[in-house]
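Our consortium's second objective concerns turning raw sequence data into structural hypotheses that experimental partners can test. To show how far this objective has progressed, the report includes one record in full. It was chosen at random from the queue rather than selected for favorable results. The single chain below, 529 residues long, was entered without modification.
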Amino acid sequence: MPAGGFASVPPAGVEFEAKITPIVIISCIMAATGGLMFGYDVGVSGGVTSMPDFLEKFFPVVYEKTNDPTINSNYCKYDNQGLQLFTSSLYLAGLIATFFASYTTRNLGRRPTMLIAGVFFIVGVVLNASAKNLAMLIIGRILLGCGVGFANQAVPLFLSEIAPTRIRGGLNILFQLNVTIGILLANLINYGTSKIKAGWGWRLSLGLAGIPAGLLTLGALLVVETPNSLIERGLLEEGKSVLRKIRGTEKIEPEFLELVEASRVAKEVKHPFRNLLKRRNKPQLVIAVALQIFQQFTGINAIMFYAPVLFDTVGFGNDAALYSAVITGAVNVLSTLVSVYSVDKLGRRKLLLEAGVQMFLSQVVIAIILGIKVKDHTNDLHQSYAIIVVVMVCVFVSAFAWSWGPLGWLIPSETFPLETRSAGQSVTVCTNLLFTFAIAQAFLSMLCHFKWGIFLFFSSWVLIMSIFVVFLVPETKNIPIEEMTERVWKKHWLWKRFLDENVDEEVGTNATDLKKGGHSIGLDPASQF
C-alpha cells in the first residue's frame, strides 16, 4: 500500500474487475459522435471553399483570382485572410469556449457538457446553412467552435473514465475514429453537392452537419454520467450504482474506494489551474501541451482542411481534387481502425515512433515531386506523378491516423490525476485549438510563400517530435488512470525528478500539517497512486 493511503485502498498494480458491458459500448459510441461533428466541420470547410458558387457569394476576390489566369499563381490563388478566417474562426472560438467547458465538466459533469456542445452545434449549423452574408457565416462558425470546445473537453474524459482499463485505449480512440469518419462523410458530401448546378450545393454541405449535431445531443441525453464525475461531485451512492452497472459485476468496491480517495484528494485543490503548474504536475502538463503542438505541426490539419484546394493547386482540377480528398478521407478512417485494434496491444510509443518514420519519408517525397514538377503556372500534373502524390498523402494520412491523431487525445486524457483532470484537459484542448487556429489561418499564405517547401517544413517537425517521443513520452498501456503517478511518472528517468517526495508539494495547506504519525494522510496525489 502506498504511503499515506487508507487500508481499504488497493495497492498499485491491481487491475479492477470489469466486464465489457453493452452500456459501456453504447455510451462510448454515442459520446464519440462529438468527434463525428468535429471531423465533419474540419472536412466540410475545405470542400465548400473550393466551390465556385460559395466563393462567388462570400469571397468574390478569391473567385476572381481563381478564374483570371493573368493574375493567377497556382500556389497563391487561394491566399486570402478572409477565406482562412472562415475556416480558422471555429478553432479560435473553441479555444475560448474551452475555459468555460472546464468549469461545466468539473461542476456539472461530463454528460451536461456534451449536451451543451450539441446545442451549440445545432444553432451553428442552422446559421451556416441559411447564411445570407459573410457575418452570418462567421457567427455560425463561431458557434460551431463553441461546440467543439465543449465536446473536445468532455468526450475524451468521458471515454477514458467509463472504459475498463484493458480496453481504455481502444474505446477512447472511438472519438478520433469518429473524427475521421466525419471528415470522410464531409468529403463524400462535398463531392456530391459540388455537382449541383443551382448554386445551393454548399448550403446542403453545411446543413447536413445537423445530423451529427443531433446525434451528439441525443447521445448526451441517453448516456450515463461517469462514476468519477458523480463521486467528484459528492454523489457517492449514485456513483457506486453507475460503477456497478457499467462494470457488470458486484465486485466494484476496490475501484470505488480508489475513486473516492482520488476524489477526496481532488477536493483539497481549490485552484485546479494553479495546481496544474505545481512541480509534481509538470510531467503530465509538458507531455499534454507538447503532444497538441506536435499534432498540429505534423501538417495533418493543413492537408485535411484544404485537401480539395491543395489537390486543385497542384493541378488535379476541381472534380479530381474532391475525388482525391475522398480517397484520403477513406484511408484516414481505415487507418484509425488499426489504432483501435493495436493501441492496447502494441502500446502508445511504438505507434508514435513507427508513424514518425512513415510521415517523414512521405512528406519528403511529396516535396521533391512538387518541387520538380509543379511551378507557379503549371496547368496540369502528369498523371503518374499525380498518382504518386495521392499515394504519398495517403501514406502520410494513414500513419497519422493510427498514431498522432488518436494518441494526441488519448495520452493526456489518461495521465492527469483527478484533481487536475478537468483543468489539464482544458489546457490540452486549448493548446490544440490555438495551434489548429494558427495553422488554419496561416496555411494558404504559407503555401503561397513556401510553395513545395511547406512539406519540408512539416517533415522537419515530424523529426523533432519523434525524438521527443523517444526520450520523454512514457508508455501508459494497460495502467489504471489513478495509478499513473506510481507506475509511470515515478519510474521515468527524467519525470521522476519532479515527483521527489522531499520537494514541498502541499495542496492548499502547510506541509507540516500533512503528517500524522509519520505517515502522509494523502493530500498529495504523488504519494497516493
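The partners drew two points from this record. The two ends are 9 Å apart (CA to CA). Confidence is low (pLDDT under 50) at residues 1-13, 502-529. Both points have been shared with the crystallography group to help prioritize constructs.
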